[in-house]
TrEMBL record:
This is DUF1700 domain-containing protein. It comes from Rugosimonospora acidiphila. The chain crosses the membrane at residues 88-113, 125-144, 150-175. Pfam families: HAAS. It comes from the Bacteria. Keywords: Membrane, Transmembrane, Transmembrane helix.
């Protein structure tokens, strides 16, 4: 489990890498500003959860570097993983990967999601848990005792519809979250 100091050091390393194309003065100022902000918001007794919350509020280092590059008139070398195509591809792999290649497709989508700079930890956990939650709900529906009601078909169709709606809602949530961080 990462310590608060490790989380901050990793975040600053990512910011340093993402801002490599900034002019030296702009990059130094950016690093100093973010370092000062973190020092102000995170004290020595901060928990891992508190540090993650502060880092999520700041946003992805790649986004910060891109914004600094826009302000300074230079282009950042931030990875292409921040574009609309990446966001849509990630959500499609999460949605369809589980159907095409049941376990590996879902894992590929999760890897893309966790490497995407547009989503914070809450979004990433929600996207990760959507498929397992759908599978658990399907298993509950299939193993429930339907003999007393005699309406197995209605229960299954309703359950499948609920699962599909839940998946679509979850993935729309992820796309909206990504769009709001562009």
């Amino acid at each position: 489990m990462p310590t608060p100091d490790t989380l901050i050091a990793d975040y600053l390393d990512r910011l340093r890498q993402a801002s490599a194309d900034l002019p030296a003065g702009s990059r130094a100022e950016l690093m100093q500003d973010i370092g000062a902000h973190l020092a102000e918001k995170v004290d020595a007794t901060a928990s891992e959860v508190q540090v993650r919350r502060v880092l999520d509020e700041l946003g992805a280092p790649e986004e910060i570097a891109a914004e600094a590059a826009d302000q300074s008139g230079t282009r950042s070398s931030a990875p292409a993983a921040g574009g609309l195509a990446y966001d849509v591809a990630t959500v499609l792999v999460l949605l369809l990967g589980g159907f095409v290649i049941p376990l590996l497709g879902w894992i590929a989508g999760v890897v893309l999601l966790w490497n995407g700079p547009r989503w914070n930890a809450r979004h990433k956990w929600a996207g990760t848990l959507i498929w397992p939650g759908a599978i658990i709900l399907a298993l509950v529906l299939l193993t429930a005792d339907h003999r007393t009601s005699g309406r197995l078909g209605v229960v299954v169709v309703t359950g499948v519809a609920a699962i599909m709606v839940g998946l679509v809602v979850g993935f729309v949530y992820l796309l909206r979250a990504a769009r709001s961080h562009r």
